[in-house]
Amino acid sequence: MKIGCPSEIKAQEYRVGLTPAAAQEAVTHGHEVLVQAGAGAGAGFADADYEAAGARIAESAEQVFAEAEMVVKVKEPQAAERKMLREGQILFTYLHLAPDPDQTKDLLESGVTAIAYETVTDRAGGLPLLAPMSEVAGKLAPQVGAWALQKANGGRGVLMGGVPGVGPAEVVVIGGGVVGTQAARVAAGMGAHVTVLDRSLPRLRYLDDAFRGEFSTRYASAATTAELVARADMVVGAVLIPGAAAPKLVSRAELSGMKPGAVLVDVAIDQGGCFETSKATTHEDPIYEVDGIVHYCVANMPGAVPRTSTLALGNATLPFVIALANNGWKAACEADEHLMAGLNTHAGRLTNYAVGRALGIDVLSPSLALKL
Fold first, then answer.
1. Is 0.85 surpassed by the pTM of this model?
2. Closest CA to 105 of 71, 124, 146, 77
3. CB 79: neighbour CB atoms within 10 A?
4. 176: closest CA among 208, 144, 146?
5. Got the DSSP string for 24-73?
6. N or C: which end of the chain has fewer CB within 10 A?
7. Which phi-psi region, left, alpha or beta, contains residue 279 (left: φ > 0; alpha: ψ -120 to 50)?
8. DSSP characters for 181-224?
9. Which of 31, 96, 338, 346 is the catalytic position?
10. Handedness of CA 345, 351, 355, 356 (dihedral sign)
11. What CA–CA distance (Å, rounded) separates 300 from 74?
């Protein structure tokens, strides 16, 4: 199979879909790998590294999209890239379609077979291709939130860990999954007083047992959430409904009850955000203020640390890339129901139920899509 890896063109995105090691693995399996010139530079990989791995260097994205039978990326294809997709081609990347009707429309019109990292599952019910970036984003959230809390950036001027005689920042993490756990660990490590909210009692028990009081846990009733958000210096939104739009957990009306200069970090922004006032921002212009509350809503947070993020993502995606290349997408999905869960579009049909519900589009069962 001809596997193509273009440069990412989303603002301030420095990750790359394939590492040189992944390219070498694919070449070893008998596949051809085409990497756009400079695609890996932001993550510290030179064109020479890819050539040494057996890949070819393409001068343009147009060449990559035209030649590749499978395109491997990091972020969802931008409008210019979507025009280059075609029926019979495989697209393997993050998509986050539920809050993005324009992208969904373009993918359906292109006829491309799109497999989304964020909806591939595993035997434990987890999301193995989302988890590495969730870990990175979770660990980054308190770091960027602490920066936003500085007075010069519009925040309250509160130090995360306090000092002797002065209490630490109050941090509330909404969601106790991968993102929330990592955010809580890092915020607690910075000395903040941290409370994690979740509606799963088994998950709350696990966090209590595993972290032995490193941070507090509370059940995420609406009343408790509102109470803690009002007292917080920083709120990290870390909720996820696989494939679906994120629920809005903090309303605009509730901002007036928060401390002036408090910070909201919305890690769920890729799925539309979990605060009513969230809108996607970039690393170049990451924050904005609504009613005196600072919002950090960068839609590709792991892009801030592209070396770590690319290596972590590559470790997770490589087995699936090889399976798709070795067997073709139909046989690979037939052999692996968890990979089939990643199928979002095929031949002009939507194949993910959560996206269909979010956008009001009829859905074809992935198992039936295999027969088209």
1. yes
2. 77
3. 10
4. 208
5. HHHHHTT-EEEEETTTTGGGT--HHHHHHTTPEEES-HHHHHHH-SEEE-
6. C
7. beta
8. HHHHHHHHHTT-EEEEEES-HHHHHHHHHHHTTSSEEEE--HHH
9. 96
10. positive
11. 10
Catalytic residue flag (residue 96): yes
CA distance 278 to 316: 29
Q: Tokens representing 267?
A: 């890690």
CA 314 to chain centre: 14
> Vertex 75, ends 361 and 276: CA angle to 5°?
60
Identify the residue whose tokens are 């950036």: 153
* Sheet containing 113-116: order of strands: 56-58, 32-36, 2-5, 70-72, 90-93, 113-116, 343-346, 349-350
Other CB atoms within 10 A of residue 289 CB: 12
Angle at 25 between CA 20 and CA 28, to 5 degrees: 125
- Identify the three-state secondary structure at position 17: coil
Backbone torsion region of residue 94, taken as left when φ is above 0, otherwise alpha when ψ lies between -120 and 50, otherwise beta: beta
What DSSP element (H or E) covers 289?
Answer: strand 287-290
Helix axis angle, 131-149 relative to 306-335, nearest 10°?
150
Q: What tokens were used for 71? A: 């395109």
Q: Distance between CA 101 and CA 82 in Å, rounded? A: 13
Of 26, 46, 44, 137, the closest CA to residue 92 belongs to 26
| Residue-level pLDDT, tens digit, the chain, 372 residues | 999 999 999 888 999 999 999 999 999 999 999 999 999 999 999 999 999 999 999 999 999 999 999 999 999 999 999 999 999 999 999 999 999 999 999 999 999 999 999 999 999 989 999 999 999 999 999 999 999 999 999 999 999 999 999 999 999 999 999 999 999 999 999 999 999 999 999 999 999 999 999 999 999 999 999 999 999 999 999 998 877 888 999 999 999 999 999 999 999 998 899 999 999 999 999 999 999 999 999 998 999 999 999 999 999 999 999 999 999 999 999 999 999 999 999 999 999 999 999 999 999 999 999 988
Residue among 140, 100, 16, 2 at smallest CA distance from 344: 100
Instruction: Scan for tokens 């081609």, then name that residue.
Output: 89
